[in-house]
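JOB MANIFEST
job_type = single_chain_structure
chain_count = 1
residues = 439
[input]
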Amino acid sequence: MGKQLHIVSFSVPFPANYGGVIDVFYKLKSLSNAGVDITLHCFQYDREPAKELEEFCETVFYYPRKMMGTHLLGFYPFIVGSRSSEELIKNLLMDNAPILFEGLHTCMPILDERLKSRKKLVRSHNIEHDYYSALAKLERNPMKRLYYKSEARKLERFEPLAYKNADVVLGISKKDTDYLTDKYKNAVHVSAFHGFESVNIPEKTEDFSLYHGNLSVGENNEAAIFLANEVFKGLEQKLIIAGNNPSVQLQKVVNKLHPLPLISPNPKSEFSNHDVYFPKIIRNDSLWLMYYTSKNEQNEEFLCVAKSDNLMDWKVVKENVLTRNQGWNAGMKNLLCAQVKIVNHQIHLWATGTKDVGNYKKPNKGNALDVCIGKFHTSLNPYSFTEDIGNPIFGGNPTFDFENDHIGGAFQEIDYENYTYTFYHGKGRSGKEYTILVK
């Protein structure tokens, strides 16, 4: 049997999707890879048991956290008292291996006389009383604010009881370690564990600022709102906020329209001096491509393409990228990009087209080629397309009464059991209603 270690975790450390459990999970992985036999003890209250932990641990125990209100009124902090367990003590006494307590939360057993002779380490994830004091200042609910203030006082009182009974306290940051060393003399700095084993710096970088944190924590959420409202408002510098469970208030702050249009009509262009609309976007290699429709003052429509490397800043590359033929798309109206996607390293584009049928105001204006959809492709140049053979691929069927007037510019393809099903909508000359059709 190799080196043995007990680890007492404040929660089930999987999935590793926020700061504290990321540190615990990847610490388990690193220690296991180093040959340490780990017995893991988890307090369970908001997460299910995770079989994934068994890959790194010899044994995993789960203990229910005692979420009773009586712990709110006790001498010990609620986050500590609710994690007391006699069963945990018994399991820790099964051998004489060292014990690592993850966070002040799990340190109730460290006071137990039965563990006095054991080697005990504590991972300090925060200076907890400072953290809870900060939560109290940000909390709007008066009852929660009262709880945070009470918890901060209890944590400040409990901290020396725990850390003075530990052999080593592992500070997670240099600042925290300086505080712990000054106060308890037994602290060392051990940075947070994480899943990245190498530094991979991309050759091309983007210009933005990143704020990352668990947004369900009030302090983190308020900081994100402050950054969005007070620091980056009006700046050209882009702010990316990443984290789980953002508040409704934060979502309202950031879910705003871009202050300027991405693409506007160009008064100097013969193709787009009136309107631009109906965008479809794909990613091709390192660029985003937007295919959209433009209209000139003669109400003629054209397909255009713009490019971007960040989805926010767009440059028009080429207008009128699809050529007309003498058949199904000879008309200068109703040219929309219905769909675009990459298949087998080719860009495939579906577009509506019309054959000029004369007076559009007459009730029976159309013929079988009024509005159809055809397909185009390009292998290398995303700005120059070749028309597929057999267009239009649907629409333009004079014998099908439900689409012999025209069809709509939206459709969906589904591949199922060796068939491609195309769902679309159309209208016949004999009726006024659109119906949903399938080919």
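[summary]
Confidence is low (pLDDT under 50) at residues 362-366.
The helical segments are 19-33, 78-81, 86-92, 128-138, 142-163, 174-184, 218-231, 248-254.
exit_status = 0
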